[in-house]
Structure formats: C-alpha cells, structure tokens
Amino acid sequence: MSNALKYAFPSGRGVRGEIAIAFRRAGDGPYELTIRDNGVGLPASFGLETSESLGLQIVRDLVAQIDGSIRVENRGGTIYSITFPAPEARESGGGDR
Fold first, then answer.
1. Is the whole-model pTM more than 0.85?
2. Is residue 39 packed enough to be buried (19+ CB in 10 Å), middle (13-18) or exposed (0-12)?
3. Which member of 56, 59, 65, 95 has the lowest number of beta carbons within 10 Å of its beta carbon?
4. Which of 71, 89, 91 has the alpha carbon at shortest distance from 79?
5. Minimal CA–CA distance to 1: which of 16, 15, 19, 18?
C-alpha cells in the first residue's frame, strides 16, 4: 500500500489514481489479499525475490511465516496478491511451530 502511494502516481500524469484492497475466501479454501493500483506499474527490471526494498523483505518474511505465497503482476498498474491457508488448515497440517 505504501509503495502505491509513494511511486504509482507521479504528478502530471493526468489520471486519477486509484487503489483497491480486497480480502476474500472461496468456500473452505485459502484466503487471498489483493492490493491493486492503476499507477505507472513496475519497472521491467523489477523482481519480487531479488528486490532489496526493506518493505518487500518484511512482506516476504511475513508471508512465509503464515505459509503463504505472494504474486506480483504488472497489468494496468501493479497488483500484489497474497494467498495463505486458513488458520485451521495450518493447525491440522501437523508439526510443531
């Protein structure tokens, strides 16, 4: 969210900036958190796993802690999607945490 506010909408672009946040669960499946903007998008050289941004490092670590996955798309702006299992699915997965 903070990256969208900071980078997605440079002045003089002439387009009204929009940020959308969605949180959903399909039935008993995993949860999905999506943050989307209609900004300028990411540079072609951007790599989620190679980014040295402290914010993205923290997000990657937090997503790993909840056994989730993160996906980034550059389509009409930037879309971050974080998918993670429901707590009851994680607890029934066995093993100690």
1. no
2. buried
3. 95
4. 71
5. 19
The Cα–Cα gap between 22 and 90 comes to 22
Query: What angle is formed at CA 35 by the lines to CA 29 and CA 37, rounded to 5 degrees?
Result: 145
Beta-carbon contacts of 42 under 8 Å, excluding residues fewer than 6 positions away, are 72, 74, 78
Rounded Cα distance, 34 and 21, in Å? 6
Query: Can you tell me the distance from the alpha carbon of 50 to that of 14, in angstroms, rounded to the nearest whole number?
Result: 32
* CB of 38 closer than 8 Å to CB of 77: yes
Q: In angstroms, rounded to a whole number, what is the distance separating the alpha carbons of residues 49 and 60?
A: 8
pLDDT tens digits, residue range 33-68? 999 999 998 888 888 888 888 888 999 999 999 999
Answer yes or no: CATH 1.10.240.10 is held by domain 2-8+16-91: no
